[in-house]
Amino acid sequence: MGLKALDYESINENMKKVEYAVRGELYLRASQLQKEGKKIIFTNVGNPHALGQMPLTFPRQVIALCQAPFLLDDPNVGQLFPPDAIVRAKHYLSMIGGGLGAYSDSRGNPGVRKEVAEFIERRDGYPSDPELIYLTDGASKGVMQILNTIIRGEGDGILVPVPQYPLYSAAIALFGGSLVPYYLDESSNWGLDLNDLRQSVARARSQGIMVKAMVIINPGNPTGQCLSEANLREILNFCFQENLALLGDEVYQQNIYQDERPFISSKKVLMDMGPPISKELQLISFHTVSKGYWGECGQRGGYFEMTNIPPQTVDEIYKIASISLSPNVPAQVFMGLMVNPLKPGDVSYEQYHRESKGILDSLRRRARIMTDGFNSCKNVVCNFTEGAMYSFPQIQLPPKAIETAKRAGKEADVFYCLKLLEATGISTVPGSGFGQKEGVFHLRTTILPPEEEMPAIMASFKKFNDEFMEQYA
Amino acid sequence: MGLKALDYESINENMKKVEYAVRGELYLRASQLQKEGKKIIFTNVGNPHALGQMPLTFPRQVIALCQAPFLLDDPNVGQLFPPDAIVRAKHYLSMIGGGLGAYSDSRGNPGVRKEVAEFIERRDGYPSDPELIYLTDGASKGVMQILNTIIRGEGDGILVPVPQYPLYSAAIALFGGSLVPYYLDESSNWGLDLNDLRQSVARARSQGIMVKAMVIINPGNPTGQCLSEANLREILNFCFQENLALLGDEVYQQNIYQDERPFISSKKVLMDMGPPISKELQLISFHTVSKGYWGECGQRGGYFEMTNIPPQTVDEIYKIASISLSPNVPAQVFMGLMVNPLKPGDVSYEQYHRESKGILDSLRRRARIMTDGFNSCKNVVCNFTEGAMYSFPQIQLPPKAIETAKRAGKEADVFYCLKLLEATGISTVPGSGFGQKEGVFHLRTTILPPEEEMPAIMASFKKFNDEFMEQYA
């Protein structure tokens, strides 16, 4: 009969080219060990609730009422829900019409998109148009929609930072495009070097690749740096000169752990620069309910805002979104709640503020504990996590470890991370999953384990690492 | 500067080829009219809650508790929630670990997948493996994942019924494959003719297309027919002979409005047939929480089950699902509740049973009212809606109407449906959006408007139609 449609040899070759280390060999091995009864600390994905972070109370109250609207008619509702949650649930239910069980418009509910636009206006000080904001099932889905729009084939290149979050390499491979890497400079706190960027573009062009867009992740994943306004200007100018669209992955905009470089959006900097660039540069900005102090990953809510994208293209993106009918509606309500939060004076404000500040303050302390912990280890150096949720220490592996790994048929960082997992239960992602310069090794871990466990985890890491370095010295 | 990355002329050509009539010209015009204050009856999408269907109470109670787990610690919880909802919420929360805000495994929560497997076993009488069941953000997303796996380029063909649900044509166009149509026979109640099927395959092969898979929609969308066991055997045998994978879209399996042909799954028929076919034929079956008496479209929950798919391919599909991290978790709980429903004796059983039976009984009556209504109209003939949620009447348009449409630059059925919309507010989808034989015209409407409004809607339709036929006689 020959090959069948779903035999491995028959299927889409682009799928096979995809690598996705965040859920790769290390994750699979960790899942296996967990099944066998070992205690695993999953720091492979930025998944705060899985590591014990409690959800914010107020949005969960509102969504519970939206899911069970009949509670609003129950005379006892006030015993379980505060009045502002009840008001807010009624607001979203009336905005949504058919409730959470009805498909929304494929771009998301118009009322929520308006709340997002108002949030962006307050944040940036410039107008935002709800018609150019599309809600998505998490930011990753939005990034995939846009890359799928841009990429026609392997002649189309996308500039991606290295180290990078593997969503980008995976999606570019799946859509059959070409990833054009630009390197972040670890020695200058993962800064971006314009000369290196220019060389990357020139090299790609000399290979016949049309470079179409540039990705920035700010704050950085896995690298944790926050871009300064001056740096963002340079990037925007570069994109303008080189005729590139800019994809601004800004999902960690609430996760800032220092005061020197607060988050500033690409959209604001672009608008500040004025015409012609502010009227011409094509920018897509991404955000999510999965990060920040929300961490509502499992709800799958996100949005992207399109700036200077022609209406015909906006319509095509709408049409394609329509194939899967609508983003999930509960997460649209979460997005509304995130961008239109409680205000001082609201009954639940104090609790909401206390909870969110508690999470952010603790993350800031954990970022410090982790960086200091790594820097106290033998052959490990680590930049401070200025933002986002990750620590990305460099592991300076001795030649003997590299050779041993090679003989075992493993990348050296994979070898190290597997040993770490077996010894301590700490499930990380090897740096090779994010890309790095030849012969330099890292791992990525989230800063999300509970704060009270952090000292023990870092001690356990140090013990493993220092013994490993001893063993392979 | 030349073209930019997101200028219409620069973007992915496959996107431009996509047509998606369910949210096409008619929907956009209807949305416009609604904005202007006109009352619109949206029957373009199978979206029950948008048309007033109430959600089932029990699952919404469970999900509300899962979203607000702190309620479980409140001494007053029993005043708003029945004890079985509380037990079930605790069951899912303990199964899920990090709660609804944590990413699950990219295939979905293992416990829910086990509940799905048990449901399939009870339904079909054959074993089902949770490792071969992947949860998705609605069935459409699952269909897209599988088509993306199968299609490598325009040389790969997928057999799709015509008329068809445009998800298939849209996804095949987006992935750059070739749609190979086979016609359903309206005169034999949208039956499937094996000879026609064979000819379709032969024709495609003569054009150099490798036909890789066949789609069936059972019960049919937009055509509403239920496949008999004999017919399913023929289809399976045909796929086996022709070395095709079978994609079984079974999202309407709970929506049956006659007793002669109850739903029977492709998986069961395949297993009944025994080896070699039961061990070799590659089958993917799709299901959802959006249809049935649930109608929870906005939650975006679905699954697919893979039968006889090699492990390496299963792993590739897993890897690609991992790029977007996980299907939304609340809808996974809905799926668990749907496949593992309340049983007689449970405190909330009676209400649950009453609500679901009420919805199904009413849908059955509405299917009848609508079919009879259409058949009472001048130049309209309509098969009975045996299942699913749609009526697909043939509109025999007079030559004068066809000419007038042509002069207006419209397809004749689009012309008719636009006039219908303007005159009555009824928003349908022209048959050309689903494909049909040359010179034959239809429209699709859902049977979902509230039962009490149905007579008035059908009267309004009849008045419009009969005047239209008069005018263009």
TrEMBL record, chains A, B:
GO molecular function ontology, one term from the record: pyridoxal phosphate binding
Residues that span the membrane, as ranges: none
Any one GO CC term of the record: peroxisome
Catalytic activity: glyoxylate + L-alanine = glycine + pyruvate; glycine + 2-oxoglutarate = glyoxylate + L-glutamate
Cofactor(s) this protein cannot do without: pyridoxal 5'-phosphate
Keywords: Aminotransferase, Pyridoxal phosphate, Transferase
Family annotation (InterPro entries): ALAT1/2-like, Aminotransferase_I/II_large, PyrdxlP-dep_Trfase, PyrdxlP-dep_Trfase_major, PyrdxlP-dep_Trfase_small
One Pfam family matching this protein: Aminotran_1_2
Stretches assigned to the Aminotransferase class I/classII large domain: 82-454
Functional pathway: Photosynthesis; C4 acid pathway; Amino-acid degradation; L-alanine degradation via transaminase pathway; pyruvate from L-alanine: step 1/1
GO annotation, biological process: L-alanine catabolic process; photorespiration
Subunit structure: Homodimer.
Entry's family note: Belongs to the class-I pyridoxal-phosphate-dependent aminotransferase family. Alanine aminotransferase subfamily.
Name of the protein in its database record: Aminotransferase class I/classII large domain-containing protein
Species lineage: Eukaryota, Viridiplantae, Streptophyta, Embryophyta, Tracheophyta
